[in-house]
Amino acid sequence: MMPEILFLLLPVAALSGWLMARASYKKKADKKTACAYEPAYYKGLNFLLNEQPDKAIDVFIDLLEVDSETVETHLALGSLFRKRGEVDRAIRIHQNLIARPSLGQEQRANALLELGQDYMNAGLFDRAENLFTELYETGKLQKKALENLKEIYQQEKVWDKCLTVVKQLESYTGKSYSDETAHYNCELAELSFKTGEISHAAEFIKKAKQSSPDSVRALLMEARLEESQQHIKKALKLYQQIIETDHMFVSEILPGLINCYRQKGSLEELQNYLGSLFQRTHDTAVLEQLVAAVTQGQGIKAAMDYLVTQLAEYPSLKGLQLLHQLKSDNPSLQAVDVASVLGNIIEVELSQRPAYACRRCGYEAKTLHWQCPGCRSWGTIKPALDHES
Ligand SMILES: [Zn+2]
């Protein structure tokens, strides 16, 4: 409880100090005004002394007068409240600021930006949108206004507005927003697919590719569209292009790619392509399809031999599971030498296991630490036991 109160008192302390200085200054300058707010000031102080900092803060906020000297204080205080999650107070301070007709253009822009961010934090996106639009039109802080508008439209999934905003951002900053532009167009294409407007979808995909020619998402959407329209050659080329661009997506591509080769009726080409793909990626999903293709072409015995050879070179648990599956599906087959494959895989698996683990937080380590780097506890890291992983 105590530390919490101390934390709450921080802005109060700053405020009361400032008010006090101001009160004495005002006494010299204008005795009447100083007297006018003194009772409220002591009321606030009273709340403070009675450990009611929340009420004290509210009283002090109301006491703060806005003039050209205190705008910075208001802005700092408002953003402090927002950062502490007290959005209501932040909103009150910033609204109070904006209501002042005497505010300079620069200061008004800053206050609009702050209030907009308050509204966003409070989830009031409509209000935030209006404010940032107003801010943009003032001609000040335009980049910040646009970035916040982009954030709002993304959250609300209004993709055409996102596109407009990034275009403005591009011309304003000179920076490229091509990745975002591609994704927004892909989102629009997906919406068109859902409502069955295929030609619209194709248009959006085209736009996505124009802004980002290597966009995996746009290429994948285009490939699937071509495949669904039986343009097999074109689809196949696109699938291959995606793999060239980023082979991490290989498992997303495989079903479409394989379907295209089958539609073409060229099993040998499929085998060759998958073979070279596996050499490059060592991806078990590719290996699985490769084994299926070999089974179809040369029979199950050849497929199993092929799998054993590959596993000897690139051991993996998934590959072993595949081998086991093939064996149990084909019990009549001569036994293959699984033992050596298994030995390799166990060796690789064990070498990847951590030798030590923290009993408190689960931190895994290759060497013994007496203090856990994860949870900072002493003596909680111990040698890992076999059955644990
Ligand atoms: Zn730990």
Blueprint (SSEs and pairs):
Elements: H1 2-29, H2 31-49, H3 53-63, H4 71-83, H5 87-98, H6 105-121, H7 125-138, H8 142-155, H9 159-173, H10 178-194, H11 198-211, H12 216-228, H13 232-245, H14 250-264, H15 267-281, H16 284-298, H17 300-313, H18 317-329, H19 338-352, E1 356-358, E2 364-365, E3 381-383
Antiparallel strand pairs: 1-2, 1-3
Helix pairs in contact: 1-2, 1-3, 2-3, 4-5, 4-6, 5-6, 6-7, 6-8, 7-8, 8-9, 9-10, 10-11, 11-12, 12-13, 13-14, 15-16, 16-17, 17-18
The protein binds zinc ion (ZN).
Provide an overview of this structure.
- The structure is a single chain.
- With 389 residues, the chain is an all-alpha fold.
- Among the domains are: 176-265, Tetratricopeptide repeat domain (Serine Threonine Protein Phosphatase 5, Tetratricopeptide repeat); 281-352; 354-389.
- It is built from 19 helices and three strands.
- Strands 2-1-3 form a three-stranded antiparallel beta sheet, with no helix packed on it.
- Helix 1 runs parallel beside helix 3 (53-63), helix 12 (216-228) packs antiparallel against helix 13 and helix 15 (267-281) runs antiparallel to helix 16 (284-298).
- The longest helix is centred in the N-terminal third of the chain and has 28 residues, at 2-29.
- The protein is flat, with a radius of gyration of 33 Å.
- The model is unreliable at 25-35 (pLDDT under 50).
- The site of zinc ion has 9 residues, from loops.
